[in-house]
Hints:
There is one protein chain. This protein has helices spanning 13-24, 44-54, 72-96, 121-131, 184-190, 200-210, 239-263, 268-290, 293-300, 309-318, and strands spanning 2-9, 32-37, 61-65, 106-111, 116-117, 137-145, 151-152, 161-163, 180-183, 214-225. The protein is globular and about 65 Å long. α3 packs across α5 (184-190) and α6 packs across α7. By secondary structure, it is an alpha/beta fold. The protein is built from 10 helices and 10 strands. Strands 1, 2, 3, 4, 5, 6, 7, 8, 9 and 10 form a 10-stranded mixed sheet that branches. 35% of the residues are buried.
Amino acid sequence: METVVAIAVCNGMKYLNEQLESIRMQSVAPDRVFIRDDCSKDGSAEFIENYIDRNKLAEKWFLLRGEKNIGWQANFGELLKKLTDEYESEKIKLRHSGMIMDDPEMLIVLSDQDDVWREDRMKRTVEVFSRNENIELLVGSFDFLDEEGKKRRYSKDSGIISRQVFDGRFFHTRMPGCVYAFKAGLLAETKNYWTNELPHDAQLWTFAMMRHSLFTYDRPLIDYRRHGNTATGRDCTTEKTKIIDLRREKEQIRAAKEYNRDSGVLSRSEREILERADGYCLARENLFKRKNFPAMVRAMQYLDNYSSLRTFMGDIYFCMPKSMRFTGIKGKQF
């Protein structure tokens, strides 16, 4: 199984060296590393070129430069598209050579630009995939790392590997993409249903769960850095950000329905869960629009679709008249 690391970079100089070093020093080295720079203005691309040259990695590490800045979401999308195209091209070559049943078996491991990998991430990841052929997406765990380099434990580190069942919260991504590893075949099978409106990790999570091939691995594989410039960070939740989140949820559910319509991967009971998700979106949308008691009661019927009770209570809070809202929640997330 070929292992490929995919890293999206934009203005990452502050922590980039530490991240690249943690990948280069893996106990089991990846076969190839692809880094796509999204028109950095802080010298990140030049640093990466020098890093590759200085460590004599030119045969295995590759820098791709974007022509214009497209944002972190599209940056990852373009990188994964390139790897998918390469995977499918190799598969065609194998078929033409007469090896019809052979699969290129490319394993893609995602990385952000500012975390630190545990030295055995690649080794542990490959071992898990080699023991279970049903896994298409493996989602590991992490411990936190702050801007000063101080660590805070998050993972229970039980080592338990669990299949995630398709439930009413299927469209809520529960772990960040930087702890994802997946077979390129997952991308190839679902690429026609991907949308630029959604992050790569959200789509991988949903499609793998629908295919019953999403497994979580309770073991810290990286130290996950949180700081003010983190792409997915948010200081506080507002009604506006909630409406944006709802729009993304609707798009994710739409893509899931389209994929199931053509593939039929879901059982009858799972299709009912998928249909109920539509009701959740309508009820939540109505709550934000009407802001009245009947709308609150209606939304309450879909608690099993909310990512958490806290999120539901946040919806209620922002639907209250401003004069009735309590104070002291600045910086909190609902």
